[in-house]
Amino acid sequence: MELNRLPVTVMTRTIKNPSTTIYYPQLSGLSNQQAELQINRSLLQTVQGLIHEQQRVQVQGNTQMQGSYEIKNNQRGIFSATLNNYAYTPQMAHGMTFLGSVSADVDTGKIFSLRDLFRPGSDYIKVLSDRVKAQIKQRQIPTLGNFTTIKPDQDFYLADKTLVIYFQLYEITPYYVGFPMFPISVYDLEPIINEAGPLSILAAD
Predict the structure, then answer these.
(1) Residues with Cβ < 8 Å from 132, sequence gap 6 or more?
(2) CA–CA distance from 148 to each of 16, 105, 131 (Å)?
(3) Cα 80 to Cα 6: distance, rounded to the nearest angstrom
(4) Degrees (nearest 5) of the Cα angle 151, 153, 154?
(5) What pLDDT digit, counting tens, does each position of 77-96 carry?
(6) Rounded CA gap, 168 and 117, in Å?
């Protein structure tokens, strides 16, 4: 397993018109061009999905929209990024932000779902939900009702040796809390991680 991999090259692309400026990442120079195409397509589709979400919730009017991204992991052949989209239409009480993420294998182009990170048959939903519950209590995070469980396809990203589970605005907390983020060390998840998946690669010394 080649662990000391150089980061892949990330280019910034822009969607721009008088009311919209969105910056998003595209990978460049991968040895597997099909993998590069698949990852870049997924990144663009995530950007477009965030735009559609804004169009669904915004009222009619002169909507102003801005988007940017953050690279969360670019090592050991694992790429992970978050993409955010903020929009505001006059007459609304406040703007709205949506967050998306893409985690991928730069060699194969595989886009990871949360399920892919864990052994088949493992009760990863309960394990992660218990971690989230514990952090809500420890960090005294206000919630909209009692938190019970994550979704099987809950939003996440990868950052070094950490899996970060996150929720959208209003999903489990009041708006003022922002995006609730729950970092979980890969070492805490070792009993259930997929040995052929990205968490195993990130956990290796």
Answers:
(1) 147, 150, 165, 182
(2) 40, 31, 11
(3) 15
(4) 60
(5) 999 999 999 999 998 889 99
(6) 21
